[in-house]
Each structure stands twice: as C-alpha cells, then as structure tokens.
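Recall the central idea of this unit: under ordinary conditions, the amino acid sequence of a chain determines the structure it adopts. In this exercise we apply that idea directly, starting from the sequence alone.
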Amino acid sequence: MEFRASHRYAKMSARKARPAADLIRGLNVNRALDLLEGHPTRGASLFKKVLRSAIANAGLNDEVDVNTLVVSDARVDEGPLVHGRPRFRPGPMGRAMPLRRRTSHLRIAVSEPQLS
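Accordingly, the structure predicted from this sequence is:
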C-alpha cells in the first residue's frame, strides 16, 4: 500500500529542490530522514517535513510497520509564479529585467518494500 504527502506552492524553484528528492528516492524512511537532517539545502528541510507527514499518514493504518517503509517516489514539479506573472526590476540603460518568483510542488510517496 502506498501513502502520500505533498507540499504545494513551496516558495522555492523546482531546480533547487530536486537534488534533495534525488537524494532520498528509494531509501528506507529512517535513512532518508537522517540524510535530510544533515543536508545543508533549504529543499532538504522542506522534504523532511513532507516525509514526516507521509510517515504519519502511514502510521494511521494499524497494519503497517512504519520502520520498514521505503520512499517509493519523491518528485518536484514546477508550480505557478507568485502573483501569476513575472515582475520587473530596473536593468541597465533603461531596460526592464523580468523577475520570475517561482514556486514548486513537492510530492513524496512511501510504501512497504516489495518482496521478491
């Protein structure tokens, strides 16, 4: 069975959050939490919160042992721009330079390990 959690509209670009997702994909949840604890990026702290939420969602089911769960899917999708459009800042020689404040959607799925 698969349990999911997500953080939508995180005020961080997807490009900056993807290394944290790649770090934990396929790992045991306890190992993933340890890695995210020591990772210096801001995306790691956001993913740690989402992973704890997914583990709590799995803990609501009495048949599931949360210590054996595996991160089956961790991904980052691009969200909309803040305020829905780019803003502009002054550039050289009277030009306008676009300022795109990006958001992202962080998604994690945890599941029981597949027995082969």
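Residues 2-111 form a domain with the Ribosomal Protein L22; Chain A fold (CATH 3.90.470.10).
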